[in-house]
Design brief:
By secondary structure, this protein is of the alpha+beta class. Helices cover 22% and strands 24% of the residues. The chain is built from 8 helices and 21 strands. Strands 1, 3, 4, 5, 6, 8, 9, 11 and 13 form a 9-stranded mixed sheet that branches. Strands 14, 15, 16, 17, 18 and 20 form a 6-stranded mixed sheet that branches. A two-stranded parallel sheet has the order 2-10.
């Protein structure tokens, strides 16, 4: 009995003497990074992997390069925020909410996608046919778990850091495939160094372009150019790298961008060579941004978010929802969000329908970040919606939406697109062009509206973000 009591006492003393986690003084910047491989298994004779983007029944036959989910966590001694980026076409809000449930203790968790067109279908609309959902439920569940693991790794690896921020214009790496030509060509890089040793601790790169160089004929799993950019920077700086997609609507595309090899040879769309070279060139421009970077204060942390209801009028999306291809909650649309109620079962196409999404805002000291849940057009970010509507558009008298960047007043700003949801294109209502006659003298409408919830998406999203920043409910 005495021995048992003595042993228990020794255990108690040992526990008392264990070092406690060091308290972090409020205002101290801590950052950590984490990543997980989310490359699916590809067996041409087994369960198919349907690739997202370009069309239905595009089944993967192999792997060109791996897919990852990458995360970084920022803490200031009081608040703690996680920002995640996955090499996927997009993740819906319900996925994000399930991830958040598994990550208690965070002030805010942002889950975004790079919008790669060569990863598995995670939205359901690129299955074997337009009538069949293409999501592998087991794979999507594994992605959710890997996101949680990456965030926890980043959280566990937090350390005091110093930060700098730099940016360059890189219009030569962008192509706008829709008139009017408006480029969001700011490449922004956050650099972190260990506070004590000055060793590189991590990089965050934010760029505004579709990762789709491999094109619709590709059948190999790939992160497109994103993985090559990340790898280039990881090798140069020997530290983790997170890539964030920003403004990709309008349409910011990596297709049709003239790219030459190191030997000066013109490279073609749809090739691994152009994809890798584009990624390398983007990495080189990121190095320029890092070299020109200046110290930035990233504390204190502030976050805001708001649920937003957007009417769904896209007939294809409505039909896909009826058939169970588009799997997300539907609501009975009402301009008053307090009166919106969930819809159960098969939706009635005769009644107005809405989808719920989210707008978010993160302020790291001198850096403000807009979190937008889809593919927003650069006009809506940079306040470049046309002053005078082009003849032929459907809503020529629609008011210009409050621009996203006009709401950000700090010295530095950034945007995360496909943040916490993927609702498709967010198009200026004044430029909506679905019905003939068409703008710019075109015989048919330009690409975009077919992948948008509807013409009121941009006014509602942009106003919701403005209200979020102003404090208006």
């Amino acid at each position: 009995m005495r021995r048992a009591m003595a042993a228990a006492a020794m255990v108690l003393v040992s526990l008392v003497l264990l070092p406690l986690p060091a308290a972090v003084e409020e205002g101290t910047l801590e950052v950590g990074f984490g990543e997980r491989n989310i490359t699916p298994k590809v067996d041409p004779k087994g369960k198919p992997v349907y690739l997202a983007g370009f069309g239905n029944n595009r089944k993967a036959t192999g792997i060109l390069d791996p897919l990852f989910v990458r995360a970084f966590v920022v803490r200031d001694g009081k608040s703690k925020v996680a920002i995640v980026s996955a090499d996927l076409v997009g993740l819906f809000l319900d996925t994000v909410e399930r991830v958040r449930e598994k990550l208690p203790g965070f002030t805010y968790v942002v889950v975004s996608s790079t919008h790669s067109h060569d990863g598995p279908d995670t939205m359901g609309i690129w299955g074997p046919s337009p009538l069949v959902n293409g999501i592998d439920k087991e794979y999507l569940a594994s992605v959710e778990q890997k996101i949680v693991e990456a965030v926890k790794e980043a959280d566990a690896g937090k350390q005091p850091v110093k930060a700098t921020i730099g940016s360059v214009k890189a219009p030569e790496l962008l192509h706008d495939s829709r008139l009017p030509i408006v480029l969001h060509d700011d490449l922004v890089v956050l650099s972190f160094k260990e506070a004590k040793s000055d060793k590189n601790a991590g990089l965050v790169v934010q760029w505004n372009n579709h990762p789709e160089i491999l094109g619709g004929s590709n059948k190999l799993i790939s992160s497109d150019y994103v993985g090559y950019t990340v790898q280039y920077l990881k090798e140069k700086y020997s530290c983790p790298v997170v890539y964030l997609t920003g403004t990709v609507g309008g349409l910011m595309t990596s297709l049709h961008v003239p790219i030459k090899s190191a030997k000066g040879e013109e490279l073609k769309d749809g090739t691994a060579e152009k994809t890798a070279r584009y990624g390398e060139l983007l990495g080189m421009r990121a190095v320029e941004a890092i070299d020109a970077a200046k110290p930035v204060k990233l504390t204190p942390i502030e976050t805001r978010s708001s649920g937003v209801y957007v009417p769904l009028t896209n007939r294809n999306f409505l039909l896909a929802h009826q058939l169970g291809v588009l799997k997300r909650d539907a609501f009975e649309w009402n301009a008053d969000p307090k009166k919106i109620v969930p819809l159960k079962g098969i939706i009635d196409l005769k009644k107005p329908v809405a989808m719920k999404t989210e707008v978010g805002y993160v302020k790291f000291g001198e850096l403000e970040i807009a979190c937008i849940p889809g593919e927003i057009y650069p006009e809506l970010v940079l306040d470049k919606v046309v002053e005078k509507a082009e003849p032929g558009v459907d809503f020529p008298d629609a008011p210009r939406e409050p621009a996203i960047y006009n709401q950000l007043k700090g010295p530095h700003r950034m945007i995360i697109g496909l943040a916490n949801d993927e609702i498709g294109y967010i198009i200026p209502k004044r430029q909506w062009d679905e019905k003939p006659p068409f703008a710019y003298g075109k015989e048919k409408g330009q690409y975009g509206e077919v992948n948008s919830l509807g013409p009121d998406t941009a006014p509602i999203i942009c106003q919701a973000f403005a209200d979020l920043l102003s404090g208006k409910k």
